[in-house]
Specification:
By secondary structure, this protein is mainly beta. The protein has one domain (69-263): Exo-inulinase, domain 1 (Jelly Rolls, Sandwich), CATH 2.60.120.560. 0% of the residues lie in helices and 29% in strands. The protein is built from no helices and 15 strands. The strands form three sheets. Strands 1, 3, 4, 6, 9, 12, 13 and 15 form an eight-stranded antiparallel beta sheet that branches. The N and C termini lie far apart (83 Å).
């Protein structure tokens, strides 16, 4: 007795009809950018009381300032000898002398620097103890990647411009500022950006920052160089000096001491 076998066929579902994406363009009114376009005021980072900190350079550190002279520094303007003031083991900004930068160039590194806002500081906001630590100086003036230096002890400003911020890009995770007249400390790990042969970005820059022993930037990925006006962009470089800013505000000049760097592979 023969048995007839029948195959059960499953119908193939109809393919979904693709929906065409429609695009629209909206005309925008062109206007000149303003500083306020990139200012962020809230939320304000919480205030944290820092612990006592005093860090001596390790054996493999390059000493950039030990209180004696400015042999490791030149003017950012024309590479002439740096014209800031050295007295009593302290380096004080000479605003007329302009920005200074290291003679050496660096790529990836660990940096330690201590800074102090004068006890008699005047002004408010960005015009109060303003300076900047440029982790890579890519040109004259304020070209590069700036970690903000500012009196942020009971001094209100836009929070992506207070002490501990990667200027106009990263709001610090806390505000551990000591009051004017006391020494502050930055410990920084800098990972420089890398670029393709055609100048396009290969890998971005990263910054980790401890401010008075408190983590305020946690491997933050930068969007490009830090700008006062406009949006950040990357420009190709291989290695660069470290720069200190002589800011043009009228408040009393700040001071630095104990600056050292460890190059990282």
């Amino acid at each position: 007795m023969a048995a007839a076998l029948s195959a059960q066929q499953t119908p193939t579902p109809e393919p979904a009809n693709p929906q065409g994406a429609s695009s629209s363009s909206q005309a925008t009114t062109q206007r000149a950018p303003k500083p306020e376009d990139t200012e962020v005021w809230e939320p304000v980072p919480k205030v944290v009381t820092p612990g006592a900190n005093c860090t001596a350079p390790p054996s493999d550190a390059i000493i950039l300032f030990d209180g004696k002279n400015l042999d490791e520094w030149v003017s950012n303007r024309d590479k002439s000898p740096a014209k800031w003031t050295v007295a009593d083991g302290i380096l004080t900004v000479n605003k007329a002398g302009g920005n200074i930068e290291t003679k050496r160039t660096f790529k990836n590194y660990q940096l330690h620097i201590e800074w102090r806002v004068p006890e008699n500081i005047t002004g408010s906001g960005q015009a109060r103890g303003n300076s900047g630590l440029f982790l890579a100086s890519t040109g004259p003036g304020d070209a590069g990647y700036e970690l903000q230096v500012l009196d942020s002890y009971n001094n209100k400003t836009y929070v992506n411009g207070q002490a501990g911020s990667m200027y106009k890009q990263a709001i610090p995770l806390a505000n551990p500022s000591r009051k004017p007249g006391e020494w502050q400390t930055y410990d920084v790990v800098w990972t420089a950006p890398t670029f393709e042969d055609d100048g396009s970005l290969k890998t971005p820059a990263y910054a980790t920052v401890f401010f008075n022993g408190v983590l305020v930037e946690n491997h933050f990925q930068l969007k490009g160089e830090t700008l006062y006006i406009g949006q950040p962009v990357y420009k190709k470089y291989t290695s660069a000096p470290i720069k200190l800013q002589a800011h043009g505000d009228r408040s009393e000049p700040i001071s630095f001491r104990n600056i050292w760097v460890r190059e990282l592979e």
